[in-house]
Batch of 2 targets.
Target 1
Amino acid sequence: MALTLARLAAERPLGLRVLTGEDVLDRPIGWVHPTELTEPQAFLEGGELLLTTGLALDEETSPAYVRRLVDAGVAGLGFGVGLSHDEVPRALVATAAEVGLPVLEVPRKTPFIAITRAVSRAVAADEYATTVRIGRAQQDLTRTAAGKGGPAGVLRKLAKLVDGWVLLFDRTTVTEATPASARAYGVLLREELERLRTGTRAVSLDGREVVLQTLDTGARRVLAVGTAEPLDTAGRHIVNTAVSVLSLALEQDRAQAAAREALRTGLVELLAGGQAELALRVLTATGEKPPEPPWSVLVFLGPPAARRRLLGALEGELFAARSGASVVAFGPASVVEPVADAALRVGGLHGGVAGPVAPREFSAGLEQAELAAQAAEAEDKILVSAAEHSARGLLSLIDPVVARVYGENLLGPLRRHDETGRGDLVESLRCWLEHHGHWDVAAARLGVHRHTLRNRIAKAQELLGRDLDSPGVRAELWVVLQT
C-alpha cells in the first residue's frame, strides 16, 4: 500500500503538523523533493511531497507559489519552520486551504532527510510487496492453467486476485463469466468490443473500470476485467499474466479438441466401413470406455453453427462426432433422450434414430438413422425413428376402408374420452409416438408439462388395454394414427 500524507503525518518521531487539507490526506506520496525554487514545476512529475524552508517566499509571493504547485500536481507541501520563517506564511496557508493543497509544518528539529528516508522506506516496502504479489499471482495462474482448472479455473483465480469480475468473449459472445452474474455486462460491452481490434482498452461501466484485452489466439477472444478501483501496477501485471496463460491454455484446448474431433470422426468412418473391432480397440487405447452395446444410433442435420453447439453440449457426456454434414451419436438406448433434449435446446436441428444394433451392424443403423433424419428435416420435426420412417411404406399395402374401421374401433375409447373435454389423448399419443417416446421433447411440442403428458399416456394405456412399452403395440398404433 502506497504511503499517504495521513500515514506520514501520523509518524510521531517526525513531529509533523497538518495545517491544511485534512480532507485530502489520503493522497499517495510518489516521492519527496526538497527545493527552494519558487518555480519548481519544470522538475516535477506530479505526486511528490515538496519540501521547502521558504527561503525565497514571503506573504506577497506565497499565493502564486501555491497555485503553481497545484498546477504541477504535487501531493502536498512540507514547510520547514525555524530557519527562514518562524512560522508558515499566513498567505500561503490561506491560499493552500482555498485551493485544497495539504500543507504540513516541519519543525526545526526534524531534518528533511528524515522525511526523505521515511518516504523511501515506504516506497521500497510498497515495491517489494508489489513484486511479491505479482510473483505469487503468476505462480497461482500458471499452476491453475497447467492443472485441472483449465481456462475456467484461470478466470476464477484472476477474479479473486483483482477482487473483481471477469468475462471471456469469443468475438462479442460471452463464453465464460466469473461470477456468473457478471454475464449481464456482456451486452453492455458489445459496442466497445466491436471497436477493439487488438491490444487493450480501458472503459467505464457502472462506476467501475473495465479493462478489455485481446488474447493471442487463433479465434478472436477478448478478456474483460472489471474492478471497483482502477488497477494498480500489480493488478496490471496480473492481468497481463492471465492473458498469456489463457492464450496458451485456450490454444492447447483448441488443438486437443480438434484432435479429439478428428479421432472420433475417424472412428465413425471405421464403424461405418465395417471395422468395428479396430474402432473399438482404438477408442479403448485413447482412454475412453466404449459405449455398452447394443447401440442406438442418432444422426442430426442442421446449420453448421447448430451442429457445433450440439457437439459442444454433448462433449464429455457420450460419444458424438462430426460426420460430413451431420452429427452422429451412439450408445445404449438411454442416450437417446438426453441427445434429443440437447438438440431441442440448441434448436434448428432435425434427427433420426435407429437401433438397437450390434457394433458390426453399425453401418446399417447409420444409414437408417440418416434416412430418418432426412424425413425429420422434410417434415420439420426434431426426431424421427427409423422404425417410424420404415412403417410409412407399409401404409400403401393396407386397404384404406379396412384401416379406417380398424382405427376407429381401436382408438374409439380415446376419442370418446377426448369428446368429454377431459384431455387430448389422441393427439398426445400421436406426438409421444412421433418422438419415439421421449417425454421432454414430446411435452415441449404439445406445450404441456412432462408430468401432464405422462398422465395422459397412462390414461390412454388404461383405456386401450394395451402395453404401450411393447414395440409391436407402438407400431400398430402409429400405423392406425396415420390412416
Note: The chain has a mean pLDDT of 86.
Target 2
Amino acid sequence: MAETKREIERKYEATAGADVPDLTRVRDVATVVDEGVTELDAVYHDTPDLRLAADSITLRRRTGGSDAGWHLKFPVAVGVRDEIRAPLSDTLPPDLAALLRSRVRGGEVVPVVRLRSARDVRRLLDADGDLLAELSVDAVHARRLPGGRRASWTEIEVEAADDADPRILDAVEKRLGKAGIRPSRAPSKLARALAETAPEDDRPAERPGAPAGAPGTAGAAVLAYVREQAEAIVALDPAVRRDLPDAVHQLRVACRRLRSALKTYRSVLDRTATGPLGDELKWLAGELGVARDQEVLAARLRAHLADVPRTLRLGHVKARLRIWDTARTGDARHRAVAALDSDRYLALLDRLDALLADPPLRKAAGRDAAKVLAHAVRKDHARLAARVDHALSLAPGHERDLALHEARKAAKRARYAGDAARPTLGKPAKKFSRRVKKVQSLLGEHQDGVVTRATLRDLAAQAHAAGETAFTWGLLYGREEAAADAAERALPEVWARAASL
C-alpha cells in the first residue's frame, strides 16, 4: 500500500568535502547530531521522451537508507513535493502506475538515470530534542541509462521535519549563505543528471501541443486556452485518484471549460473536428459529475440539518443522512476512477494531443484576436439573454425550473468565454466574467435547491417506510422551497446588471 509524505526541502551547490558551518548558531537549533554516511542507489524511470521530467515529476526505485522502495514525487510548490512511497519490488507497483496513466498512456516507463549517492546526514534538534530538519551532504555519481554519459557533483540538501515550522529552512539558508553556500541552480538531482548526462547531439523534443498561430491572432489565443485546459486534465488525473480535496471538481471544470471553448470559438476551430471531441469531454464530465454532485448535495444537507434546532430534529435524521451519503459516495468515486481507467479516456487524451499538434484552424484563426474573441463573447451573452428572458416569462413551476437550468448552463458557457478572452481583452472581459458569474451562481443555487428537494422527498419516503417521522425532512423541504423562491425573485435585478454589459 502506497503512503504519502509532504516533502519540504531546499538544495544548495557544494564542493567535494564541503565544509558545513556550525548550525547550532541557527535560531532554535540546540544540537546537531551526526548520523554518519549512508550509501543510496536509485534508478530513475521515465518515458523514453521524458514526459515525467518535463512536468517535474520523478519516479525512482531506491535501495539503501531507511526508506528503500519506489518513490513517486509530484510538485506542489517551489521546494515542496508530495512523495508517494511503495514497498521495494522488481516492477512498478500498480498504485503508482495508475497515478502516471494520464501521462504515460499506453506506453511504458524505462530506466533513464542511475544515481549513486554517499549521503552524510546531520539531524538538527531543538532544546527538547525534537527534530527540526535534516541536512545532508550528498556526493552524487550519475550515469545515463543505458550505458550513457556520466557526471558527478556534491550538493547539500536541507529538509524540514514533518511537524516542524518550515521557516527553519529560511534560518538554515541564511547561515549557509554566510558561509558562501548558494542555492542549487537545478530543482532536483534528476534534473541536473539529465542535463549533465544528455548526449552531445541531444536537442529538447518539442512537447505535444506546441503553440500554433501567429502571435496576436485568434488562433493563438484560443489554442493557448485549449492547451491550458488540456494540460489541467492531465495534471488533475492523479489528484482525483489520490482523492485530494476538490480534485474531482477541478477536473470536471477543466473538461467543461475546454468543451465550452470548442463551442464558443467554433469560428476559429472547425466544429467538424472538435464536435466529437466535445462529446467525449461531455462524457468524462458526466462520469466525474456523479461524485461531485453527491459531494455538493451531501454538504448542503449536512449544513441545513445543522441549522435545525435539536428540538425539531425528529427521528434518526443524522444517521439516515450518513448512511445515504456513505453508500452513494462510494459508488460515485468508483465510477469516477473507472472512467479514468478506461481506454475511452486514454483515447480522449490522445485526441487532445492530436488537436493541439495539428489544429483544425478556420479562416478566422488568422484574424485579430481581440475582434474575433469579443464577437464570440457577445454571441454567448446574447444566447444567455434569450434563455433568461424565456425562463422569466414562464409561471413558477416545473417548466420554469427546467428553463432556469438551461439558462444556468448558458451563463456558465458565457462566463467561460469571458475567462478565455481575458488574456486578450483584459479588464472588460474580467468585468464581464464577474457579472455573469453572479447570474450563474444565483441560477446554480436555484438548481441545487431543485435537486435537493427531490432528494429530501426520497429521504422522507424512506423514513416513512421505516416507521419514522418525516417531519424534519419536510421542514428542510419547505426551507429549500423558500430559498428557491427568493432566488427567482432576485434574478431580474442580478440579470439586469449583467445584461447592461
Note: Confidence is low (pLDDT under 50) at residues 206-211.
